[in-house]
Amino acid sequence: MTEPLFREDSYLERCEAEVVAVTPEGGVVLDRTVFYAQGGGQPGDSGLLRRSDGSEIPVANAVYGPDRAAIVHVPAAGGPLPAAGGPLPAVGERVIAELDWEKRLARMQAHTALHLLSVVLPYPVTGGSVGDGEGRLDFDIQDAGLDKAELTTRLQELIDRDAPVSFRWITDAELDANPGLVKTMSVKPPRGSGRVRLVEIDGIDLQPCGGTHVRRTGEIGRAEVTAIEKKGKQNRRVRIKLG
Q: Do residues 204 and 116 make contact, with C-beta atoms less than 8 angstroms apart?
């Protein structure tokens, strides 16, 4: 099992860890990591693993293993894949796992902005994705005259409140007793450990989420609704961009 440090502190940029397994494809499993594993519409982190001899293993992505207990750090192209004849770390080796922080921060800002967008448009969410300083949500809603400028203004007003963003844990049973907390129809809250992580934007929003977020909405900066696309009779895709 990999301890997911990013769930408790999304601002950790690096950590020391021990290699506990190497997959046949060259993926590296650590006992703990700051790398967010791909899921819930948010991409896995990239970065590198620093070895004690000074060499580095570039990491292109982080994904969950088959049982979702382990997080696999996937080497970038040209990295130490067996097919390329590169050296693989040994089980028990100590490394420093270090994020591409600029990319992580942009995704944290975008993810929190999308939570706010789900408040501006309080409709069931049928899909979504987090990008590097941009993102989108799909809503189960007819067009109803949605206006990009109006939505941008309402979204920015929530950002400018500089509201604290925090998280807490509830049991699976507590979530089952409060189904209204779940906004997403396509992505189910991560379960399996007996508890579910809630992300709260103070006075604005509360919903299950395993992703990474900024500490305050003011850290998002400027946001703009850039497109509203018709994806079906009652499905509208709303795109945002930061900066």
A: yes
Q: Is 142 helix (H, G, I), strand (E, B) or coil?
A: coil
Residue given tokens 């409060």 in the structure block: 178
- Give pTM, 2 decimals: 0.90
pLDDT of residue 174: 80
Tokens of 55: 């060499």
Confidence of residue 193 (pLDDT cuts 50, 70, 90): low
Of 71, 22, 66, whose CA–CA distance to 47 is shortest?
Answer: 71
How far apart CA 242 and CA 226 sit, in angstroms, is 10
- Report the candidate in 199, 198, 42 with the shortest Cα–Cα distance to residue 108: 42
Q: Is the dihedral of CA 3, 131, 156, 236 positive or negative?
A: negative
Q: Report the length, in residues, of the chain.
A: 243
pLDDT digits (tens, 9 = 90+) for 85-132: 457 789 999 999 999 999 999 999 999 999 999 999 999 999 999 999
Q: What is the DSSP letter of 4?
A: E
Distance CA 43, CA 61 (A): 8
Residue 183 near residue 177, CB atoms below 8 Å: no
Homologous superfamily assigned to 103-242: Threonyl-trna Synthetase; Chain A, domain 2 (3.30.980.10)
Q: 């690096």: which residue's tokens?
A: 14
> In CATH, which of 1.10.150.20, 3.40.50.200, 2.40.30.130, 2.40.30.10 is domain 3-99?
2.40.30.130
